[in-house]
Amino acid sequence: MKKRERLEVIHDLLKVIQDNNNSIRPTPLLRYSNLSSQRFSEYYTELLEKGFVREVKNKKGRKMISLTDKGFAFLQQYQKIKDFIAEFNL
Amino acid sequence: MSRFMLTWPNLTIDVIYTLIVAVSCFFIFYKAYKYFRLSNHKGLRYFAAAFFFMGLSNLLSLFMPLFSTLTGIPCRTILIFGIPIPYMIHVFLAFSMSVTVFSLLLSIIWKSCGKHSDTLFYSMFVISLLMSTLWVFIPTRIVFLFLNFSILMTAAVIGSYKYFSIKFSSKKTGKNAFYIVYLLLFLFWLVDTAGNSIIRFSWQTGLALYILSTSLILTIVYRVIRISGK
Question: What is each CA distance from B35 to A41, B41, B109, B158, in whole angstroms?
């Protein structure tokens, strides 16, 4: 199986959140991501630092993850970014 | 007559060419930087930097002929901190030209550099600055051209190696023709700079160079629009 590129992993993580009505708990996200917990933790920190996702508490006080505007923008532009990188061999 | 003073038809051609190339470069920079801001992809960062400095270099190279022709004042008579303006412009020009070549090269080889690509990126600025200030101490046009030609040749050797390694590898991307476009673009650019620094080309030769360079840069713009307009 081909190893996913960094950009692809980020896309997959954001897509899972979007497909779950923009609200998912960290454990199911880890399960869907197909990453080791260490790698997941690195990517998750990156997503938070970049402002792609934010942590919110639901009514039961549980930590939920949802996309920010920047996260939605990334998903919208993802294909273009991928094509741009491929076009110029970056 | 100052070396930088041009006849009006030549100046008009220079201005039109520079504006087309500079606007194209800044457009490519804008698109690449926008994608970099979203993705933090290093290749996009170096690519954006390359086109930003290419646009800047083009504007800088027009400054002296434009100033001298419009005002009738030879640039070398105007001093900043005791240094004639043409020297200063040449330092910035040499700096931005070498950063352009290095950045574009880094944008295609950064994956081979592993974690050191950012260190290389910043070192490249320092090296370019040192090389361009060397020109202040040895202010001959030959040194200026030699520096730029050395950088271009280094980039060409590494770029060609990368081109052929992709061409003959099992993982063919089918999109490696751009290395040749980059190389030709820099070559025409260098010949044009040589023409401006040492001798003035006939307007026909100059025009032919401008048309070729503009076609190459517009090819890149077209590819960018095709992707971003999807």
Answer: 24, 8, 19, 26
